[in-house]
Amino acid sequence: MTRVPSRTTATFCVLVVAATVFALLQAMVIPVLPRIERALDTDPRSVTWVVSAYLLSAAIATPIVGRLGDAIGKKPMLVTALALLSAGSLGAAFAPDIRLMTAARVLQGVGGAVMPLAFGIVREEFPGERVPFAIGVLAAIGGIGASVGLVLAGPIVDLWGYRWLFLLPALVTAATAVAAVLVVRPSTTRAAPISWAPAPFLAGALATFVLATTNASAWGWTSGRTLGLYALAVALGACWYRLESRAHHPLIDLRMMAIPAVRSGNAVSFLLGFAMFAVYAFVPQILQAPASTGYGVGASVTESGLLMLPLASAVFLGGVATARLVRRAGPRPVVAAASVVIAACLAAVAWRYATAWQLVAVLAVYGVALGVSLAALATLVVVSVPASQSAVAGAVNFNARNLGGAVGTAVMATVVTAELGVGGLPLGSGYTAGFVLLALSMAAATALAVAIPRPARAPEAGATP
User: Fold this and answer.
1) Do 362 and 351 touch, CB atoms closer than 8 A?
2) pTM of the full predicted structure?
Protein backbone atom coordinates (compact mmCIF):
# COMPACT_ATOMS: atom_id res chain seq x y z
CA MET A 1 0.00 0.00 0.00
CA THR A 2 1.18 3.53 -0.73
CA ARG A 3 2.62 5.35 2.27
CA VAL A 4 0.28 8.17 3.28
CA PRO A 5 1.97 11.55 3.97
CA SER A 6 1.73 12.85 7.54
CA ARG A 7 -0.40 15.86 6.53
CA THR A 8 -2.85 13.56 4.80
CA THR A 9 -3.01 11.45 7.96
CA ALA A 10 -3.66 14.58 10.02
CA THR A 11 -6.42 15.59 7.61
CA PHE A 12 -7.99 12.17 7.94
CA CYS A 13 -7.93 12.45 11.74
CA VAL A 14 -9.76 15.79 11.50
CA LEU A 15 -12.37 14.23 9.21
CA VAL A 16 -12.83 11.25 11.55
CA VAL A 17 -13.44 13.52 14.55
CA ALA A 18 -15.86 15.70 12.55
CA ALA A 19 -17.80 12.66 11.31
CA THR A 20 -17.89 11.15 14.81
CA VAL A 21 -19.32 14.25 16.48
CA PHE A 22 -21.95 14.69 13.79
CA ALA A 23 -22.94 11.02 13.97
CA LEU A 24 -23.30 11.16 17.76
CA LEU A 25 -25.45 14.30 17.61
CA GLN A 26 -27.90 12.48 15.37
CA ALA A 27 -28.87 10.09 18.17
CA MET A 28 -27.86 11.30 21.62
CA VAL A 29 -30.83 13.63 21.96
CA ILE A 30 -33.51 10.99 21.24
CA PRO A 31 -33.44 9.11 24.60
CA VAL A 32 -33.59 12.35 26.60
CA LEU A 33 -36.55 14.05 24.89
CA PRO A 34 -38.77 13.55 27.98
CA ARG A 35 -36.15 15.28 30.15
CA ILE A 36 -35.85 18.17 27.69
CA GLU A 37 -39.63 18.44 27.67
CA ARG A 38 -39.70 18.87 31.46
CA ALA A 39 -36.68 21.20 31.58
CA LEU A 40 -38.09 23.57 28.94
CA ASP A 41 -41.66 23.33 30.29
CA THR A 42 -43.14 22.27 26.96
CA ASP A 43 -45.41 19.51 25.68
CA PRO A 44 -44.77 16.18 23.87
CA ARG A 45 -45.83 17.54 20.48
CA SER A 46 -43.53 20.56 20.67
CA VAL A 47 -40.51 18.65 21.92
CA THR A 48 -40.56 16.39 18.85
CA TRP A 49 -39.39 19.43 16.89
CA VAL A 50 -36.03 18.97 18.55
CA VAL A 51 -35.69 15.99 16.19
CA SER A 52 -37.86 17.16 13.28
CA ALA A 53 -36.12 20.55 12.91
CA TYR A 54 -32.78 18.80 12.70
CA LEU A 55 -34.01 16.38 10.03
CA LEU A 56 -35.60 19.14 7.96
CA SER A 57 -32.51 21.32 8.09
CA ALA A 58 -30.17 18.45 7.21
CA ALA A 59 -32.36 17.37 4.29
CA ILE A 60 -32.26 20.86 2.79
CA ALA A 61 -28.69 21.87 3.62
CA THR A 62 -26.76 18.70 2.79
CA PRO A 63 -27.02 18.77 -1.04
CA ILE A 64 -26.71 22.57 -1.19
CA VAL A 65 -23.63 22.78 1.04
CA GLY A 66 -22.13 19.77 -0.73
CA ARG A 67 -22.53 21.53 -4.08
CA LEU A 68 -21.02 24.71 -2.64
CA GLY A 69 -18.06 22.61 -1.55
CA ASP A 70 -17.53 21.49 -5.14
CA ALA A 71 -17.94 25.05 -6.45
CA ILE A 72 -15.94 27.21 -4.03
CA GLY A 73 -13.83 24.67 -2.16
CA LYS A 74 -14.45 21.77 0.20
CA LYS A 75 -12.16 23.14 2.93
CA PRO A 76 -14.02 26.46 3.52
CA MET A 77 -17.39 24.71 3.44
CA LEU A 78 -16.18 22.04 5.88
CA VAL A 79 -15.00 24.74 8.27
CA THR A 80 -18.31 26.57 7.84
CA ALA A 81 -20.35 23.42 8.48
CA LEU A 82 -18.31 22.66 11.61
CA ALA A 83 -18.67 26.24 12.84
CA LEU A 84 -22.45 26.13 12.38
CA LEU A 85 -22.59 22.73 14.05
CA SER A 86 -20.66 24.15 17.01
CA ALA A 87 -22.82 27.29 17.17
CA GLY A 88 -26.00 25.20 17.00
CA SER A 89 -24.75 22.91 19.75
CA LEU A 90 -23.84 25.86 21.95
CA GLY A 91 -27.25 27.43 21.35
CA ALA A 92 -29.02 24.17 22.20
CA ALA A 93 -26.97 23.79 25.40
CA PHE A 94 -28.17 27.14 26.75
CA ALA A 95 -31.60 27.40 25.07
CA PRO A 96 -34.10 28.72 27.65
CA ASP A 97 -37.20 27.57 25.75
CA ILE A 98 -38.33 25.19 23.03
CA ARG A 99 -38.32 27.84 20.30
CA LEU A 100 -34.64 28.66 20.71
CA MET A 101 -33.84 24.97 21.11
CA THR A 102 -35.57 24.28 17.78
CA ALA A 103 -33.68 27.12 16.09
CA ALA A 104 -30.40 25.76 17.43
CA ARG A 105 -31.21 22.32 16.07
CA VAL A 106 -31.79 23.88 12.64
CA LEU A 107 -28.22 25.20 12.75
CA GLN A 108 -26.97 21.77 13.79
CA GLY A 109 -28.72 20.21 10.81
CA VAL A 110 -26.54 22.22 8.43
CA GLY A 111 -23.67 20.16 9.80
CA GLY A 112 -25.10 17.20 7.88
CA ALA A 113 -22.87 18.30 5.01
CA VAL A 114 -19.80 17.27 7.04
CA MET A 115 -19.99 13.69 5.77
CA PRO A 116 -20.18 14.31 1.99
CA LEU A 117 -17.58 17.09 2.26
CA ALA A 118 -15.32 14.63 4.06
CA PHE A 119 -15.81 12.08 1.27
CA GLY A 120 -14.86 14.72 -1.30
CA ILE A 121 -11.73 15.73 0.62
CA VAL A 122 -10.67 12.08 0.86
CA ARG A 123 -11.12 11.73 -2.90
CA GLU A 124 -8.70 14.63 -3.43
CA GLU A 125 -6.19 13.96 -0.62
CA PHE A 126 -5.63 10.22 -0.64
CA PRO A 127 -3.84 8.04 -3.19
CA GLY A 128 -6.42 6.25 -5.34
CA GLU A 129 -5.88 2.82 -3.79
CA ARG A 130 -6.44 4.24 -0.28
CA VAL A 131 -9.70 6.05 -1.07
CA PRO A 132 -12.01 3.03 -0.48
CA PHE A 133 -10.47 2.36 2.94
CA ALA A 134 -10.75 6.00 4.07
CA ILE A 135 -14.33 6.36 2.84
CA GLY A 136 -15.17 3.00 4.41
CA VAL A 137 -14.01 4.21 7.82
CA LEU A 138 -15.97 7.47 7.55
CA ALA A 139 -19.11 5.70 6.33
CA ALA A 140 -18.83 3.19 9.17
CA ILE A 141 -18.56 6.03 11.69
CA GLY A 142 -21.76 7.47 10.27
CA GLY A 143 -23.43 4.10 10.77
CA ILE A 144 -22.32 3.51 14.37
CA GLY A 145 -23.23 6.99 15.60
CA ALA A 146 -26.79 6.08 16.55
CA SER A 147 -25.91 3.12 18.75
CA VAL A 148 -22.92 4.81 20.42
CA GLY A 149 -25.02 7.93 20.96
CA LEU A 150 -27.58 5.84 22.82
CA VAL A 151 -24.79 4.41 24.99
CA LEU A 152 -23.35 7.81 25.90
CA ALA A 153 -26.61 9.70 26.40
CA GLY A 154 -27.58 8.03 29.67
CA PRO A 155 -24.27 8.45 31.57
CA ILE A 156 -23.74 12.04 30.35
CA VAL A 157 -27.23 13.13 31.38
CA ASP A 158 -27.05 11.32 34.72
CA LEU A 159 -23.69 12.90 35.58
CA TRP A 160 -23.99 16.44 34.23
CA GLY A 161 -27.48 17.03 32.80
CA TYR A 162 -28.86 17.07 29.28
CA ARG A 163 -27.20 20.38 28.34
CA TRP A 164 -23.83 18.63 28.22
CA LEU A 165 -25.12 16.49 25.35
CA PHE A 166 -24.76 19.70 23.33
CA LEU A 167 -21.97 21.50 25.17
CA LEU A 168 -19.39 18.73 24.71
CA PRO A 169 -19.97 18.51 20.91
CA ALA A 170 -19.85 22.33 20.72
CA LEU A 171 -16.35 22.35 22.21
CA VAL A 172 -15.09 19.44 20.10
CA THR A 173 -16.46 20.78 16.80
CA ALA A 174 -15.02 24.23 17.48
CA ALA A 175 -11.59 22.69 18.03
CA THR A 176 -12.03 20.52 14.93
CA ALA A 177 -12.90 23.57 12.83
CA VAL A 178 -9.64 25.21 13.92
CA ALA A 179 -7.71 22.04 13.13
CA ALA A 180 -9.35 21.89 9.69
CA VAL A 181 -8.16 25.42 8.95
CA LEU A 182 -4.62 24.39 9.84
CA VAL A 183 -4.22 21.00 8.17
CA VAL A 184 -6.76 20.52 5.34
CA ARG A 185 -5.39 21.52 1.95
CA PRO A 186 -7.45 23.75 -0.37
CA SER A 187 -9.39 21.89 -3.06
CA THR A 188 -7.52 21.19 -6.27
CA THR A 189 -10.70 20.97 -8.34
CA ARG A 190 -13.60 23.37 -8.79
CA ALA A 191 -17.03 22.85 -10.29
CA ALA A 192 -18.76 25.52 -12.35
CA PRO A 193 -20.66 28.34 -10.57
CA ILE A 194 -24.18 27.50 -9.42
CA SER A 195 -27.48 28.47 -11.03
CA TRP A 196 -29.54 29.21 -7.92
CA ALA A 197 -33.04 29.43 -9.39
CA PRO A 198 -33.88 25.73 -8.83
CA ALA A 199 -32.60 25.71 -5.23
CA PRO A 200 -35.76 27.01 -3.47
CA PHE A 201 -37.85 24.35 -5.20
CA LEU A 202 -35.46 21.59 -4.15
CA ALA A 203 -35.45 22.90 -0.57
CA GLY A 204 -39.24 23.11 -0.52
CA ALA A 205 -39.71 19.62 -1.95
CA LEU A 206 -37.32 18.06 0.58
CA ALA A 207 -38.79 20.01 3.51
CA THR A 208 -42.41 19.14 2.74
CA PHE A 209 -41.55 15.49 2.12
CA VAL A 210 -39.69 15.12 5.42
CA LEU A 211 -42.37 17.08 7.32
CA ALA A 212 -45.16 14.90 5.95
CA THR A 213 -43.25 11.68 6.57
CA THR A 214 -42.15 12.42 10.14
CA ASN A 215 -45.70 13.37 11.13
CA ALA A 216 -47.61 10.79 9.09
CA SER A 217 -47.91 8.25 11.92
CA ALA A 218 -49.47 10.93 14.17
CA TRP A 219 -51.59 12.68 11.54
CA GLY A 220 -52.55 9.55 9.62
CA TRP A 221 -51.11 8.54 6.27
CA THR A 222 -54.36 9.39 4.47
CA SER A 223 -55.12 12.61 6.37
CA GLY A 224 -55.57 15.83 4.44
CA ARG A 225 -52.41 17.37 5.91
CA THR A 226 -50.24 14.39 5.02
CA LEU A 227 -51.55 13.96 1.48
CA GLY A 228 -51.51 17.71 0.91
CA LEU A 229 -47.86 17.98 1.89
CA TYR A 230 -46.93 15.01 -0.28
CA ALA A 231 -48.77 16.58 -3.22
CA LEU A 232 -46.94 19.85 -2.61
CA ALA A 233 -43.62 17.97 -2.43
CA VAL A 234 -44.33 16.35 -5.80
CA ALA A 235 -45.28 19.67 -7.38
CA LEU A 236 -42.19 21.44 -6.03
CA GLY A 237 -40.03 18.50 -7.10
CA ALA A 238 -41.41 18.67 -10.62
CA CYS A 239 -40.66 22.40 -10.78
CA TRP A 240 -37.14 21.78 -9.49
CA TYR A 241 -36.53 19.07 -12.09
CA ARG A 242 -37.74 21.28 -14.92
CA LEU A 243 -35.56 24.22 -13.88
CA GLU A 244 -32.56 22.05 -13.03
CA SER A 245 -32.61 20.30 -16.38
CA ARG A 246 -32.44 23.68 -18.14
CA ALA A 247 -29.88 25.36 -15.86
CA HIS A 248 -26.47 26.15 -17.34
CA HIS A 249 -24.76 25.37 -14.03
CA PRO A 250 -27.18 23.14 -12.09
CA LEU A 251 -27.15 22.72 -8.34
CA ILE A 252 -27.34 18.94 -8.86
CA ASP A 253 -26.21 17.83 -12.29
CA LEU A 254 -28.94 15.50 -13.57
CA ARG A 255 -26.44 13.90 -15.94
CA MET A 256 -24.43 12.86 -12.89
CA MET A 257 -27.58 11.39 -11.33
CA ALA A 258 -28.14 9.36 -14.51
CA ILE A 259 -24.81 7.53 -14.20
CA PRO A 260 -25.94 3.89 -13.67
CA ALA A 261 -23.73 3.28 -10.64
CA VAL A 262 -24.91 6.52 -9.00
CA ARG A 263 -28.57 5.90 -9.78
CA SER A 264 -28.53 2.32 -8.49
CA GLY A 265 -26.38 3.23 -5.48
CA ASN A 266 -28.81 5.94 -4.39
CA ALA A 267 -31.80 3.61 -4.71
CA VAL A 268 -30.11 0.96 -2.57
CA SER A 269 -29.06 3.63 -0.06
CA PHE A 270 -32.69 4.75 0.30
CA LEU A 271 -33.79 1.21 1.17
CA LEU A 272 -30.79 0.69 3.45
CA GLY A 273 -31.73 3.85 5.33
CA PHE A 274 -35.34 2.63 5.49
CA ALA A 275 -34.21 -0.42 7.47
CA MET A 276 -31.21 1.03 9.34
CA PHE A 277 -32.89 3.95 11.07
CA ALA A 278 -35.92 1.86 12.00
CA VAL A 279 -33.63 -0.68 13.69
CA TYR A 280 -31.84 2.07 15.62
CA ALA A 281 -35.17 3.57 16.71
CA PHE A 282 -37.06 0.41 17.70
CA VAL A 283 -34.52 -2.14 18.97
CA PRO A 284 -33.90 0.02 22.08
CA GLN A 285 -37.66 0.07 22.63
CA ILE A 286 -37.70 -3.74 22.61
CA LEU A 287 -34.79 -3.82 25.04
CA GLN A 288 -36.43 -1.28 27.37
CA ALA A 289 -39.91 -2.80 27.29
CA PRO A 290 -40.83 -4.74 30.48
CA ALA A 291 -40.51 -8.51 30.40
CA SER A 292 -44.25 -8.76 31.08
CA THR A 293 -44.89 -7.80 27.44
CA GLY A 294 -43.54 -11.17 26.36
CA TYR A 295 -40.84 -9.61 24.17
CA GLY A 296 -39.14 -6.95 26.29
CA VAL A 297 -35.92 -7.24 28.27
CA GLY A 298 -36.65 -4.58 30.88
CA ALA A 299 -33.33 -2.77 30.40
CA SER A 300 -32.71 0.83 31.38
CA VAL A 301 -31.71 3.48 28.85
CA THR A 302 -28.04 2.99 29.73
CA GLU A 303 -28.30 -0.81 29.74
CA SER A 304 -30.03 -0.88 26.38
CA GLY A 305 -27.28 1.36 25.01
CA LEU A 306 -24.62 -1.03 26.28
CA LEU A 307 -26.45 -3.93 24.64
CA MET A 308 -26.21 -2.00 21.37
CA LEU A 309 -22.41 -1.71 21.62
CA PRO A 310 -21.70 -5.01 19.79
CA LEU A 311 -23.76 -3.67 16.89
CA ALA A 312 -21.71 -0.45 16.83
CA SER A 313 -18.41 -2.33 16.92
CA ALA A 314 -19.58 -4.68 14.17
CA VAL A 315 -20.56 -1.77 11.89
CA PHE A 316 -17.09 -0.27 12.24
CA LEU A 317 -15.36 -3.59 11.56
CA GLY A 318 -17.50 -4.14 8.48
CA GLY A 319 -16.68 -0.67 7.16
CA VAL A 320 -12.94 -1.15 7.64
CA ALA A 321 -13.00 -4.53 5.87
CA THR A 322 -14.97 -3.25 2.88
CA ALA A 323 -12.07 -1.84 0.84
CA ARG A 324 -10.42 -5.25 0.51
CA LEU A 325 -13.73 -6.92 -0.34
CA VAL A 326 -14.56 -4.38 -3.04
CA ARG A 327 -11.06 -4.62 -4.48
CA ARG A 328 -11.39 -8.40 -4.80
CA ALA A 329 -14.99 -8.80 -5.88
CA GLY A 330 -16.27 -5.40 -7.03
CA PRO A 331 -19.06 -3.34 -5.42
CA ARG A 332 -22.04 -5.18 -6.91
CA PRO A 333 -21.53 -8.61 -5.29
CA VAL A 334 -20.38 -6.99 -2.05
CA VAL A 335 -23.49 -4.80 -1.70
CA ALA A 336 -25.78 -7.63 -2.84
CA ALA A 337 -24.29 -10.11 -0.36
CA ALA A 338 -24.46 -7.59 2.47
CA SER A 339 -28.12 -6.87 1.64
CA VAL A 340 -28.93 -10.59 1.78
CA VAL A 341 -27.32 -10.89 5.21
CA ILE A 342 -29.16 -7.81 6.50
CA ALA A 343 -32.49 -9.15 5.24
CA ALA A 344 -31.83 -12.53 6.89
CA CYS A 345 -30.93 -10.88 10.22
CA LEU A 346 -34.05 -8.72 10.19
CA ALA A 347 -36.17 -11.79 9.45
CA ALA A 348 -34.48 -13.55 12.39
CA VAL A 349 -35.35 -10.64 14.68
CA ALA A 350 -38.95 -10.82 13.48
CA TRP A 351 -39.02 -14.55 14.18
CA ARG A 352 -37.49 -14.51 17.65
CA TYR A 353 -36.25 -11.57 19.66
CA ALA A 354 -37.33 -12.27 23.26
CA THR A 355 -33.91 -13.34 24.56
CA ALA A 356 -31.42 -10.50 24.94
CA TRP A 357 -28.29 -12.47 23.98
CA GLN A 358 -29.97 -13.84 20.84
CA LEU A 359 -30.99 -10.35 19.77
CA VAL A 360 -27.51 -8.95 20.45
CA ALA A 361 -25.86 -11.82 18.52
CA VAL A 362 -28.11 -11.37 15.49
CA LEU A 363 -27.56 -7.61 15.53
CA ALA A 364 -23.79 -8.11 15.62
CA VAL A 365 -23.97 -10.06 12.36
CA TYR A 366 -26.35 -7.44 11.00
CA GLY A 367 -23.86 -4.74 12.00
CA VAL A 368 -20.99 -6.25 10.02
CA ALA A 369 -23.17 -6.42 6.90
CA LEU A 370 -24.46 -2.88 7.52
CA GLY A 371 -20.92 -1.51 7.78
CA VAL A 372 -19.94 -3.26 4.56
CA SER A 373 -22.99 -1.93 2.72
CA LEU A 374 -22.59 1.67 3.96
CA ALA A 375 -18.91 1.79 3.00
CA ALA A 376 -19.33 0.07 -0.37
CA LEU A 377 -22.20 2.33 -1.44
CA ALA A 378 -20.42 5.53 -0.39
CA THR A 379 -17.26 4.48 -2.23
CA LEU A 380 -19.21 3.42 -5.32
CA VAL A 381 -20.96 6.78 -5.69
CA VAL A 382 -17.97 9.00 -4.89
CA VAL A 383 -15.55 7.29 -7.29
CA SER A 384 -18.12 7.10 -10.11
CA VAL A 385 -18.24 10.88 -10.66
CA PRO A 386 -15.59 13.50 -11.49
CA ALA A 387 -13.59 14.80 -8.52
CA SER A 388 -15.27 18.19 -9.03
CA GLN A 389 -18.65 16.58 -8.26
CA SER A 390 -17.62 14.21 -5.47
CA ALA A 391 -19.03 16.26 -2.58
CA VAL A 392 -22.46 16.83 -4.11
CA ALA A 393 -22.63 13.18 -5.24
CA GLY A 394 -21.84 12.08 -1.68
CA ALA A 395 -24.41 14.57 -0.37
CA VAL A 396 -27.18 13.21 -2.57
CA ASN A 397 -26.33 9.64 -1.56
CA PHE A 398 -26.25 10.65 2.12
CA ASN A 399 -29.61 12.40 1.71
CA ALA A 400 -31.11 9.37 -0.04
CA ARG A 401 -30.21 7.25 2.98
CA ASN A 402 -31.59 9.82 5.43
CA LEU A 403 -34.83 10.24 3.48
CA GLY A 404 -35.21 6.48 3.47
CA GLY A 405 -34.62 6.56 7.22
CA ALA A 406 -37.38 9.12 7.72
CA VAL A 407 -39.82 6.98 5.74
CA GLY A 408 -38.74 3.72 7.38
CA THR A 409 -39.01 5.08 10.92
CA ALA A 410 -42.46 6.56 10.24
CA VAL A 411 -43.77 3.39 8.58
CA MET A 412 -42.33 1.23 11.36
CA ALA A 413 -44.01 3.43 13.98
CA THR A 414 -47.34 3.03 12.23
CA VAL A 415 -47.02 -0.76 12.00
CA VAL A 416 -45.71 -1.29 15.54
CA THR A 417 -48.32 0.93 17.21
CA ALA A 418 -51.27 -0.28 15.11
CA GLU A 419 -52.53 -2.25 18.11
CA LEU A 420 -51.59 -1.53 21.72
CA GLY A 421 -51.76 -3.76 24.75
CA VAL A 422 -51.94 -3.18 28.48
CA GLY A 423 -50.36 0.10 29.55
CA GLY A 424 -50.37 1.43 25.98
CA LEU A 425 -47.35 -0.68 24.99
CA PRO A 426 -47.16 -2.25 21.50
CA LEU A 427 -47.94 -5.92 21.09
CA GLY A 428 -45.24 -8.37 20.04
CA SER A 429 -47.14 -8.98 16.80
CA GLY A 430 -46.57 -5.34 15.85
CA TYR A 431 -42.81 -5.72 16.13
CA THR A 432 -42.96 -8.99 14.20
CA ALA A 433 -44.85 -7.34 11.34
CA GLY A 434 -42.52 -4.35 11.40
CA PHE A 435 -39.32 -6.39 11.15
CA VAL A 436 -40.82 -8.56 8.42
CA LEU A 437 -41.45 -5.35 6.48
CA LEU A 438 -37.85 -4.24 7.03
CA ALA A 439 -36.59 -7.63 5.85
CA LEU A 440 -38.69 -7.31 2.69
CA SER A 441 -37.26 -3.83 2.04
CA MET A 442 -33.74 -5.27 2.15
CA ALA A 443 -34.80 -8.10 -0.15
CA ALA A 444 -35.80 -5.37 -2.61
CA ALA A 445 -32.43 -3.69 -1.99
CA THR A 446 -30.73 -6.98 -2.91
CA ALA A 447 -32.54 -7.04 -6.24
CA LEU A 448 -31.45 -3.46 -6.96
CA ALA A 449 -27.88 -4.19 -5.85
CA VAL A 450 -27.61 -6.99 -8.41
CA ALA A 451 -28.22 -4.36 -11.10
CA ILE A 452 -25.37 -2.10 -9.92
CA PRO A 453 -22.77 -1.91 -12.69
CA ARG A 454 -19.06 -1.86 -12.05
CA PRO A 455 -18.16 1.84 -11.87
CA ALA A 456 -16.36 3.12 -14.91
CA ARG A 457 -13.36 5.39 -14.55
CA ALA A 458 -14.77 8.67 -13.29
CA PRO A 459 -15.14 11.22 -16.12
CA GLU A 460 -13.12 14.39 -16.02
CA ALA A 461 -14.74 17.55 -14.73
CA GLY A 462 -17.03 19.05 -17.25
CA ALA A 463 -17.41 15.91 -19.29
CA THR A 464 -20.80 14.50 -20.02
CA PRO A 465 -21.36 11.23 -18.13
Assistant:
1) no
2) 0.79
